[in-house]
Design brief:
The protein is of the alpha+beta class. It is built from four helices and five strands; from the N terminus they run E-E-H-E-E-H-H-H-E. Strands 3-2-1-4-5 form a five-stranded antiparallel beta sheet. The longest helix has 29 residues. The chain is elongated and about 70 Å long. It starts with a strand and ends with a strand. The model has no long low-confidence stretch (mean pLDDT about 80).
């Protein structure tokens, strides 16, 4: 299990608990902050909150420990990286089979790029369904004592 501290941001009307990660990036302790692109991205991109089912009675502001199963994380990585590539290879194979022979190799790079981008768009559109509901379900393990 991969564990991380989080804070409860709100309790939804449906009883779901909305949490946001407490972990800050490692960039705060690094001496290369001024010239590093990762530090810039960490400052610019907001942290995302998401809903988790919980059996523990919680309130907004409570600190909790959230865990994700390692096996489900591996499955999620495979889906995110392999699905667009499989869509691209399928699109190229279909185009090569359907286009007439003198023209089938002329348009393959464009078809490959288009189908790869379509795979990324599909993953982006379905990420809440794929990642949070099918691939892994974050679990709240325990409530941390107030600091």
């Amino acid at each position: 299990m991969i564990e991380e501290a989080a804070v409860v941001t709100r309790i939804g009307a449906d009883g779901r608990t909305w949490i946001k990660s407490l972990q800050t990036s490692a960039c705060s302790g690094c001496m290369q902050q001024q010239s590093c692109g990762t530090a810039t991205l960490a400052k610019v991109l907001p942290k995302r909150e998401f809903a988790v089912d919980s059996d523990i009675a919680l309130q907004a502001g409570d600190r909790v420990v959230v865990a994700i199963d390692d096996g489900h994380l591996l499955l999620t990585s495979l889906i995110l990286y392999l699905l667009p590539l499989l869509i691209m290879l399928g699109g190229v194979g279909l185009a090569q089979a359907c286009l007439p022979p003198p023209h089938n190799s002329d348009y393959l790079p464009e078809i490959a790029l288009t189908s790869l981008l379509a795979g990324f768009a599909l993953i982006n559109r379905c990420q809440n369904l794929l990642l949070l509901h099918l691939c892994f379900k974050p679990q709240i393990l325990k409530k941390l004592p107030a600091a």
